[in-house]
Request: fold
Amino acid sequence: MSKPNPDVEIVNPPNMLQIKIGGPISAGDLHLIEKAEDAIKDLRHEFGNWLEEEVQKLEDAAKAVREKGLKGDEGEQLFIRAHDLRGVGFTYEFPIITRLAASLTKLIDMDEKRQQASKALALAHVNAIRAALSQNIRDTNDAVAAALAEELEVQSSEFAKPWDTD
Amino acid sequence: MTETSKIETSCANKTVLIVDDNAALRGLLRVSLHAFGVAKVYEAESVDLALSLIDCKHVDLIITDWKMKPRDGLDLVRQVRNPQTCSAAYVPIIMLTAYSDGEHIRAAKQAGASAFIVKPFNSSSLAATIVEALEDDRIIVNTSDYLGPDRRSVSRTGPTTAHPLLAAR
Reply:
């Protein structure tokens, strides 16, 4: 790659038209945003089933971890399932599942972490996710769920601290 | 005065390919895209199926999940942006993922992704990113192994990306 020439200044003039109209979408788009949200609402009756499928995949991965530990492919599979759940929990109206899954991924998102992470802590996350779905606890309005999520997050963050780059 | 819909203008007559191994998420994306006025939506549950589809169908935009097996979304982006292996290298690609750290975003941009949606997404962030990707006005770079948007710059339609790191100059 060539070195930047100190004698040359690259100017990126602001796109004033874009600034004036205020971002990539405008007020004229609102009806389409609402239309999309309505279309998604029409699928709400499916959300529970879809989430159940994802949680079952997580539990299958957890079963293998329970037997063989986090250090091999089993740990990676658990991470993949947690990563998926983190992405869909909020969309399927269970934000607490996104939060718990995020905490689990933080615990086991690198091979190096999986070599040292507590299997019990990882499985506690899985149990909490299952409990949230089975008992229809969607967010932290439930005091017990809030306390549990916070405790798991604290422990996961504490473990992951040496890898934090922020 | 009625304001023009940018989404409608961007999406009209467009064909979008969704690549995700999760059927439910493909469904959510599909209904959203139809609501935005996209003319046709193709779906593929794997990178290999997506590449076969791109080979025989015209596609204006690809939305791909990152974490898939055996081949992932990043692999798809690299394959599409390689003019020796794909005839649709110029097509805008949106990466959809739960990864939000700078390292992953830089890797996606380096591979040639046009924009990035961090899950969980909503209709507004999806719409904004689609408009951004379809209106991407970056210079197209053509080398022996890469054909796609200039990876050193960002779209002049920005800073509109779903993640601030992609807008960093």
Notes: Chain B has one domain: 6-167. The helical segments of chain B are 6-11, 23-35, 47-56, 73-80, 102-111, 123-134, 164-167. Chain B has a mean pLDDT of 83. The domain at 6-167 of chain B is CATH 3.40.50.2300 (Rossmann fold).
